[in-house]
Amino acid sequence: MRTLFWIIALFAMAAGLVVAARYNTGYVLLVLPPYRAELSLNLLLILLFVGFIAGHLLVRLVSGTLRLPARVREYRIARHYRKAQATLTEALQDFFAGRYARAEKAAASSIKLGEYAGLGAILAARAAHELRAYDRRDVYLAQIPAQTPEDTMVKAVTEAELMLDHRRFHEALNLLKALPKKHTAALRLELKAQQLAKNWDQVLALVEQLEKRKVFDVGQAEQIRRHALSENLKRKAIDSHALEAAWQKIPPREKRDGRLAAVAARCFIALGNREQARRAIEGSLEDNWDSELIGLYAECPGEDVVRQIERAEAWLKDHPNDAMLLLALGRLCARQELWGKAQSYLEASIAVEPTYSAHLTLAQLQENLGNPDTARKHYRESLELAVAQLRQTSGGRRKTTL
Predict the structure, then answer these.
(1) What is the mean pLDDT of residues 96-105?
(2) CB-based contacts of 165: which residues, under 8 Å, 6+ apart?
(3) What are phi and psi of 300, to 5 degrees?
(4) Is 70 exceeded by the pLDDT of residue 276?
């Protein structure tokens, strides 16, 4: 529509000029002694217009000729840039498609083109790493520029991630520690490195930071924190003072976790601190009942075993069919030489769930009571259950391996 409007306007203008020229009888006299020329005004106007157009075209021609080398250079640069971009895109597509050899080749070409040398070197290093060409990987890593803080961070994070794949966690930690400020991805890499290095105090600190950044949900953070606390307690289990200090540093909420309390109890029992083991178990069982944890209760008798029996019998009112609780009561009563009660609790435990531990304890009790035939019967049943459990465990492991 706009084009049609301009065509109509031009025709109208041309018609107007023709009509105006018919009524224009003026002339122009040009004098340059001894010459003089007389031109009609219409012709002069036409010559001026043609001259203007010719001059404009001449100026543009000269300007275009002078700018030709620069335009050729710009064209070559643009073509080079497009080629580099296409090469890097091809490398990325091949890498994420799993064609690592092709990705490395394309990334190496990108490095030579120079436009995306840093990204090309990172991509080539990762592709070579996947191909287990570690010498080439290291060569590519050395080509990553480190001119700005961002370049330094990219290089350090890439190298640290590749080092962790080889479990070279000390080198990865040295690279990550050199960073002035860590983003979330770097913190996650550091967490993995600290876990491999078994630096559990640092693991706990990093989990807290990552939880604040919403990297882990509550369940994931609790699982990592619980594992770190457990491993830290096991590491401190060679010294009673260090173990006690580590246990006291744990928040009360974490101490009530059954699995963590079980680890602490085993560590305290191993060091002979049965009183602390008993307190750890009782503190956890008050809030969260754990049948596996109650099995340790009989292994840490305190000075007042009768009080332990009374407390366990109070738990029995709420958990009358807990085989492990009945077993623990049987062991505690046997330790206190309450033979009748011990036998009753052990038989009740076997009635709820026959276990080799309950049969073994009852066999030892019958042996002490002078009942060798009954003792042999329970020894045999204990052995059969133990063998069956070993077979089941080995069968499960074999299936997992297959």
Answers:
(1) 90
(2) 129
(3) -130, 60
(4) yes
pLDDT at 256: 85
What residue ranges in 190-253 does DSSP mark as E strands?
none
Q: Are strands 27-32 and 35-40 parallel, antiparallel or unpaired?
A: antiparallel
Nearest in space to 247 (alpha carbons), one of 235, 264, 231, 262: 264
Which residues are within 8 A (CB) of 9 and not within 5 positions of it... i.e. 6 or more apart?
A: none
Q: Radius of gyration (Cα) for the chain, nearest Å?
A: 44
Q: How far apart are CA 285 and CA 331, in angstroms?
A: 18
pLDDT at 293: 84
For residue 402, what is the DSSP state?
A: -
Nearest 5°: the CA angle 82, 88, 93 is 125
**Residues 6 or more apart from 206 whose CB is under 8 A from it?**
187, 190, 191, 194
Token readout for 98 is 């799993």
Helix (H, G, I), strand (E, B), or coil: what is residue 269?
helix
DSSP assignment of 8-72 equals: HHHHHHHHHHHHHHHT---EEEEEETTEEEEEEHHHHHHHHHHHHHHHHHHHHHHHHHHHHHHHH
CA-CA distance, 79 to 232, in Å (whole number)?
Answer: 59
Q: Tokens standing for 200?
A: 């559990």
Whether the pTM exceeds 0.70: the reply is no
